[in-house]
Amino acid sequence: MPRKSIAAGAALILVAGFLTLFTTGGARFAVGLMLRPIVDDLGWVRSDIGLAVALFQVVSAAAMFAAGYLADRSGPRLVLTGGLVVSGIGIGLMSLMTSPWHALVLYGVIFALGSGAASLIPVSVMVTRAFPQRTGIANAVVISGMSAGQLVMIAGLAALLLTVEWRSIYVLLGIIHLALVPLLIIAIPKTTSAQSKAARPADGLGIADAARTRQFWLLLVIYAICGLDDFFVSTHVVAFAQDRGVGAFLAGNLLAMMGLTGLIGVVVAGAFSDRSGPVWPTAIAFIARVAVFALIMVDQSTISVAAFALVFGATLMVTAPLTAIFVAQNFGTRHLGALTGLITMVHNVFGGFGAYLGAAVFDGTGTYDIAFAVMFGSSVLALLLTAMLRKPGVAAV
C-alpha cells in the first residue's frame, strides 16, 4: 500500500477516535454541570444523582471490558458506532426523567452501556496498533478529545443552560451522539474477524498469566484510586463551587476550564511517556493531587476552589493514554484490549464509588470535608504504590 495512503488512513483513525471521545467525554461530564438544576427542579437529593453515576461507572466499566475484548477480535468500527447509537438514545431520553429510577435506568444502564462501548478502550487499541512507534503521543492526542469535549461542550452547555432548561440539554446531547455515527462509518475501515485476528501480535500475556505478576496488582490499585478521585471531583466540583458562593455560570465554566488544563496535561504526559516511560507522569499527577486535596482541606475560598479545580483538571486524564503503555510494557500487546479494558473497568467501578461517596457524605454532613480527607489519603497511597512500579521488559508467552 502506498505510504501516503497509510498515512491518510492513520490520520483518519486519529480523527475518528478524537471525535468519539470528544462527544462521549463531554456528555459524561454534563451530569456534574446539571446536578443542582435537576435536584432543585425535581425535588431529589444529591444521592439520587450520585447513585445513578455510581451505577453508570459500574455498568460502563463492564461494557469497556467487553468492548476491549471485542475490539481485539472483530475490530473497533462496529463497537464504536454501536456504542454511540446506544448512548445517544440513553442520554436523549434523560430529558423525560421524572423519578430517580429513571436516572438509574437511562444514565446508569443504557447510556453507560453505550458510553462504555464508545470509549477509550477500543480507541486505544485502534490507535496503539496504528502507531506502534509513537504510542504515547498518538494516544494522548486522541484521548485529549475527552478533555477538549469537556472544555468545549461544558462551556457551551453552561451558557445554554442560562436560557433553556436542563431537559433540552439532554435532547441536544442525544442528537450529537447519533449525528457522529455516519462519520465514523466513513472514517474507520471495516475489519473482518479474520483480519483482526491476523493483525494481533503472537506474543503477550493473557489476564490469567498477568494476574500472577506484582505489576498487575499494583496497576489495579493505582487505577482504582485514580478513578475514585476522578469521578468524585468531576461529579461534585460544580455543586461544591456553588456551595462556596461561586455563581452557577462561573462554576460550570470552572468544570469546562478543567477540560483545558486536562488537555494540556494529557498531551504533556503522553509525550513525556514516550521519553521516560509511564511511571513518572503518573507519579507527578498524584503529587499534584496530594497538594490540591491538602489545599482544599484547609482553605475553601473562591481562589482556592478555582486553583483546586484547575490543577486537578490537569491530572484528570493523565493516566488514560498511559494504560495501553503500561500494558504493552508489562504484558505485551496480544491481549491489549482485554487487559486495558480490565484495568479501566476497575478505574471506573471505583469512580462510581467516589461519585456516590461524595453525595452520601454531603447529604449526611452538609459538606464535602470528609470526602476530601478520604481522597487526600488515597492519593498519598497511590503515589507510594506508583513509586513501587519497576521498569519492566515486554512480557511474552
Summarize the amount of helix as a percent range: over 70%
The outline comes out as globular
Span of the ends, CA to CA: 31 Å
Could you describe the largest sheet, including whether it forms a barrel? none
Which structural category do the helix and sheet elements fall into? mainly alpha
Tally of structural domains: 1
How many separate helices? 17
CATH class descriptor name: Mainly Alpha
Percent strand equals under 5%
Task: Explain what you see.
The protein has 397 residues and is mainly alpha-helical. The chain has a single domain (8-387), classed as Up-down Bundle (Growth Hormone, Chain: A), CATH 1.20.1250.20. Helices cover 83% and strands 0% of the residues. The chain is built from 17 helices and no strands. The chain has helices spanning 3-33, 35-42, 46-74, 76-93, 100-117, 120-130, 135-160, 166-187, 193-199, 207-210, 214-243, 248-276, 279-298, 302-315, 320-331, 336-365, 369-387. The longest helix is centred in the first third of the chain and has 31 residues, at 3-33.
Feature tags:
disordered C terminus; mainly alpha; Growth Hormone, Chain: A; 83% helix; 397 residues
Summarize the structure.
The chain is an all-alpha fold and 397 residues long.
Question: How is this fold's topology laid out?
Answer:
Elements: H1 3-33, H2 35-42, H3 46-74, H4 76-93, H5 100-117, H6 120-130, H7 135-160, H8 166-187, H9 193-199, H10 207-210, H11 214-243, H12 248-276, H13 279-298, H14 302-315, H15 320-331, H16 336-365, H17 369-387
Helix pairs in contact: 1-6, 1-7, 1-8, 1-11, 3-4, 3-5, 3-6, 3-9, 3-16, 4-5, 4-8, 6-7, 6-16, 7-12, 7-15, 11-12, 11-16, 11-17, 12-13, 12-14, 12-15, 13-14, 13-17, 15-16
